[in-house]
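Tutorial sheet, problem 5. The two components below are modelled jointly, 562 residues in total.
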Amino acid sequence: MTRSASPKLGAYAGLAALGLLAALALRLPELVLFAAPFALVAGVAALQVRAPRIDVEVDLAHERTLEGDLLDISIRFDPSDAAERVDVLLELPPGLEVEEGTNPATLRLSKGDERVLQLGLRCVRWGAYRVGRVHLRAHDPFGVFKHETVIDRRQALKVYPTQEAVRSLLRPAETQVFSGNHVARQKAEGIEFADIRQFVAGDRIKHVNWRATARRGELWVNEHHAERNADVVIFLDVFAEARRAGRSTLDPALRAAASLAARYLRQRDRVGFVSFGGTINWLLPATGARQLYRIVDAMLDTQIILSHAWRDLVVIPRRTLPPQALVLALTPLLDDRAVTALLDLRARGFDLVVIEISPIAFVSRPRGEVQEVADRLWRLRRDAVRGRFERAGVPVTVWSDESSLAAALEEVGASRRRARTSRV
Amino acid sequence: MTSIGCAGLLLTALALAGRWATLLPWGFVGVGAGYALFLSLRGGTVDARAPILAATFFVAAELSFWSIEGRSWRSERAVLVRRVALLFSAGLATAIVGGVLLLVASGRRGGIGYEAAGVAGAVLTLALITWLGRTEDR
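Model answer (structure tokens):
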């Protein structure tokens, strides 16, 4: 513990000295009475000064929680010495706020008497945190000396983003070879009816279409579409973000990414993850609940790191982007490098959908003529970027505060259905 | 005399408003100086109100330092109660012990030896307090 004297010590010593000297010089015993308590307090505090020994433990109720949830945390004090007043501060990262209890708090600790300070933390923002750094400041009874220390009992806490409601998912244009929930174009064993054809040796009797057989006088069998899985890659643009009042375009992007990953994995698709920006993170596509945890854990490490280095798709391992995968890009369309990389993906034949996380809500209203012109130019430039995607055959849907992710996906789904119809 | 006391009070008020701990003692010095001047001009017997005034002065000083501690959160009730109790006990003790001492001191006068010993004791005590206060152990 680090000991330091408060300004009171110097003040009281000075007052005592002046009072005593004035009492002697002026021969006024009354002034001794004025000086005596100050001298006594300073003297007793100086003689009794010692650092209290306090053991601290921090317990988190959960190691993993959801954004918006309340997390109980208890700070346990086991003092070997008594401390008249102890200021306790649990250091909290910006994404966590105290909702129940007091932080900082001032406690009195008696020797050998275990105390527990309970706090309820509201997990305001997703992220990977380390919680448990406790600052202690012990005061003597008159607050003349203080002892300070920092006790590090940090534990990992993962706050997962909440999920957005998604009613229907985008159907990938192409399916893969494993069984899943998507109706494939290929004919094979399945449920969805595809066509009828003449019976050949080896066909199973249960596939015989008796109506067609009766009408044509020879055996005809039903053909079905196979149910296959698909590869979905969630592409997160982390080159830049729009941020205002603690909110950022990255927050809805991550919520959407987590929701989409969970939904696609639930229907047995292989889901991969790429965060593309100042730092690049990737996960190879895989299936199952474990992959969901891997993706969400990878997302928690995602942050916007400013970089001026040019990056393109070459830096992403080839296996991360399997052929015929549906690539769902979540981007605020703020950085040309991300736009170029996405257009490059489309040029390589990937089935790409851009979900634009609108940064408009994060932008201050323009004031004055110059700002208004700049704002209009910026919006026109964004329209031009969307136009580039549309010319490349990439549907772009804008997801803002005013609409839900489900509505944005529905919009893309409808446009993809129309596009497919017109192609036929 | 009154102006010195008022200046002291003004300084104290200024220090409290601005939360300047270094300015606060100067305000007390001003108030104390005003009282000392009053006593020296007054002459005659000892001031019977001195123990009460000394206790009030000490409690006021404690409360002033407490108010500028810069603590924006509430202490738990037990801590608050103990602190207030300690403060007013100290004030009461000052008044009672001061009254007794004043009673004893008013009846006799010390020689030059007593005075020299008093000065030396005060200086030594203050030097010890300052030294202890400045040392830091980690």
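Marking note: Chain A touches chain B through 57 residues (CB under 8 Å). Full credit if you identified this.
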